[in-house]
Amino acid sequence: MLRRVGYFVGILMAVGFVAGCNQAKSPSEVARDVNSASQQADARSAKAEEKAESKVASEQKDVHSAQREEQHVAAVQAQDVAKTEAEGARKVALAKCEALSGNRQQACKDRANADYDMRIAQAKEERVNTDPKQ
């Protein structure tokens, strides 16, 4: 019999706990809780959006900076290649001038030097037009 009473008391306590946990709140309490939860959710969402926008802006800045650096390096290297090609063409032209003599040789050398100067000027102009750091 004592055992039955123990089971009965245990069951009543369990039912009491379950019934106590699921009691409905008053409409004003529910409205207050919903309003509070909504405000917190809105604040967290706004904060998350700000953080996301900030990170995206930072990454875009990094990408822009990297692209600018890449364009600068490409422009410098293009100028270096053009200069090397101009020097090579000048040396070939000057070597060909050696076959001439007198005024013709000097005119040939002058033309080779003028062509070299023009190619160097074109390379510099191209760099100015393509290098974002110029």
Question: In short, what is this structure?
Answer:
The protein is 90% helix and 0% strand. The chain has helices at 2-21, 27-97, 102-130. The longest helix is centred in the middle third of the chain and has 71 residues, at 27-97.
Secondary structure topology:
Elements: H1 2-21, H2 27-97, H3 102-130
Helix pairs in contact: 2-3
Describe the structure.
The protein is an all-alpha fold. It has one domain (30-130). It contains 3 helices and no strands. The protein has helices spanning 2-21, 27-97, 102-130. It starts with a helix and ends with a helix.
Q: In DSSP terms, counting alpha (H) and pi (I) runs of 4 or more, how many helices?
A: 3
Number of strands: 0
Cα-to-Cα separation, first versus last residue: 100 Å
Number of domain modules: 1
Q: What coarse outline follows from CA principal-axis ratios?
A: rod-shaped
Structural class determined from secondary elements: mainly alpha
Strand percentage lies at under 5%
Mean pLDDT, all residues = 87
Largest sheet: none
Helix content: over 70%
The low-pLDDT segments are: none
* Elements, N to C (H/E): HHH
Salient structural properties:
134 residues, 3 helices, mainly alpha, rod-shaped, 0% strand
